[in-house]
């Protein structure tokens, strides 16, 4: 979280990009509808300020009749769209702020950015956006015309013996614009995509495609797991790398699913169950908390690979519904017990939705919740005997459980637990 600005702080403007007269027009046409003209005026004021000179912030606030709160609010918008980047350095009780000013994107760059154009489209009508694009269209020469322009070398008869001609000139500034901070976790996305479709490897998706996916995710506030599901449905493996993702279809899926709130919520972070000891029940619960859902189901099936329909159901639970994997493990363990080793998709997803709404994040709480759910629904023959109590057994100081996968559960005990699931 940013520190609150104080009039006694020091500020300095750094112009990281060349700014042309056209940029003022670009900013007004493309950025003002998104961030508001008042916030954009702070950007123009920064451009007008002298660069590379440290001044008290109070002088800027007084000059433009701004409060520190109004400046903070304007900066948040300017930073978000990449017009300003803010850097802070503490010196004693004061802070020095460097405000780096960058150029707005050209209309071509702006309209080709799904996130920026999508945001503009949410404020303006389609007709208004088209009118802006027409304003910046350029002409081309029709076929049939011959280019008869003079050549450079014919007009300027250069003295090739002059060594200065071959030297490069001094360095100047260049046009730069700020990157948009999207907060998209590529590793989480690729991990989810591998579960959706294991044949899609990271090498098959280019950096430019990742950027486009991240922009769409940011525009609609989708989780990485939701985007993985959409990409899986938009992927054409027979195309060449760089053209395998149908972005038109991907955008359609993003729009179609925007009404589903669960795709936009921050994913529930799993926690560990508060259970210790060497009892078979404790070991299995720790196993649930530390295994992926596919690994756990494979364990329940004594090493046999889960059916494709079961893998698809797991994907629905974990990727689409946001059920933490340890909770999904407990859910599958419970349902296999009460439904005689059958996984009914409708029943599993119904219980999964209840677990998400209840905010359950570990296997022990999930089992207790599911036991209570059975009681509330009047199931007498298929409910667990009673909720598992969270009794913490004393452990030796040197005992640390890091990798539950390494714990061994006696086969006979495990077999008996499998038979007794969901029974009194």
Characteristics:
4 strands; extended; 6% strand; Arc Repressor Mutant, subunit A; 48% helix; mainly alpha; 424 residues; four-stranded mixed beta sheet
State the gist of this model:
With 424 residues, the chain is mainly α. The chain has helices at 21-35, 37-48, 57-63, 68-80, 107-111, 114-123, 126-135, 152-155, 186-196, 207-220, 224-233, 247-256, 280-290, 293-300, 308-320, 325-338, 345-358, 363-376, 411-420; strands at residues 10-15, 55-56, 84-91, 94-101.
Protein model, in words:
- This protein is mainly alpha-helical and 424 residues long.
- The chain has 3 domains: 10-105, Orthogonal Bundle (Arc Repressor Mutant, subunit A); 186-263, no CATH class; 280-391 and 402-420, no CATH class.
- The protein is 48% helix and 6% strand.
- It contains 19 helices and 4 strands.
- It has helices spanning 21-35, 37-48, 57-63, 68-80, 107-111, 114-123, 126-135, 152-155, 186-196, 207-220, 224-233, 247-256, 280-290, 293-300, 308-320, 325-338, 345-358, 363-376, 411-420, and strands at residues 10-15, 55-56, 84-91, 94-101.
- Helix 15 (308-320) packs parallel to helix 17 and helix 16 (325-338) crosses helix 17.
- The longest helix is centred in the N-terminal third of the chain and has 15 residues, at 21-35.
- The protein is extended and about 90 Å long.
- The two termini are 52 Å apart.
- Residues 380-408 have low confidence and may be disordered.
């Amino acid at each position: 979280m940013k520190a609150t600005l104080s009039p006694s702080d020091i500020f300095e403007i750094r112009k990281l990009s060349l700014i042309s007269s056209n940029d003022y027009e670009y900013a007004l046409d493309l950025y003002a509808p998104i961030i508001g003209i008042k916030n954009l005026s702070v950007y123009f004021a920064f451009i007008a300020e002298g660069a590379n000179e440290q001044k008290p912030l109070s002088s800027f606030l007084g000059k433009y009749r701004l409060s520190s709160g109004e400046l903070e609010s304007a900066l948040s918008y300017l930073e978000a769209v990449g017009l300003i980047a803010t850097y802070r350095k503490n010196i004693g009780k004061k802070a020095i702020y460097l405000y780096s000013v960058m150029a707005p994107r050209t209309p071509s760059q702006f309209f080709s950015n799904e996130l920026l154009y999508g945001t503009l489209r949410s404020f303006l009508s389609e007709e208004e956006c088209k009118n802006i694009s027409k304003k910046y269209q350029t002409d081309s020469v029709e076929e049939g015309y011959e280019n008869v322009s003079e050549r450079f070398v014919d007009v300027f008869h250069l003295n090739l013996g002059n060594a200065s001609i071959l030297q490069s000139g001094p360095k100047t500034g260049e046009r730069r614009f700020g990157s948009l901070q999207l907060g998209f976790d590529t590793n989480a996305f690729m991990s989810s995509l591998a579960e959706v479709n294991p044949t899609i490897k990271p090498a098959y998706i280019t950096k430019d495609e990742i950027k486009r996916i991240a922009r769409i995710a940011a525009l609609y506030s989708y989780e990485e797991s939701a985007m993985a599901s959409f990409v899986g449905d938009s992927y054409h493996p027979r195309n060449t790398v760089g053209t395998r993702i149908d972005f038109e279809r991907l955008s359609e899926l993003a729009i179609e699913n925007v009404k589903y709130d669960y795709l936009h919520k921050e994913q529930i972070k799993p926690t560990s169950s508060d259970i210790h000891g060497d009892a078979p029940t404790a070991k299995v619960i720790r196993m649930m908390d530390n295994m992926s859902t596919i690994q756990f189901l494979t364990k329940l099936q004594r090493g046999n690979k889960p059916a494709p329909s079961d893998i698809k159901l797991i994907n629905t639970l974990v990727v689409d519904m946001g059920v933490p994997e340890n909770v999904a493990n407990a859910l599958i363990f419970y349902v296999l017990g009460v439904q005689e080793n059958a996984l009914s998709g409708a029943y599993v997803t119904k219980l999964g939705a209840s677990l998400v709404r209840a905010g359950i994040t570990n296997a022990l709480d999930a089992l207790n919740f599911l036991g209570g759910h059975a009681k509330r629904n009047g199931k007498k023959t298929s409910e667990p005997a009673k909720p598992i109590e969270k009794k913490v057994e004393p452990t030796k100081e040197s005992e640390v459980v890091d990798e539950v996968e390494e714990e061994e559960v006696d086969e006979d005990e495990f077999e008996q637990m499998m038979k007794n699931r969901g029974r009194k």
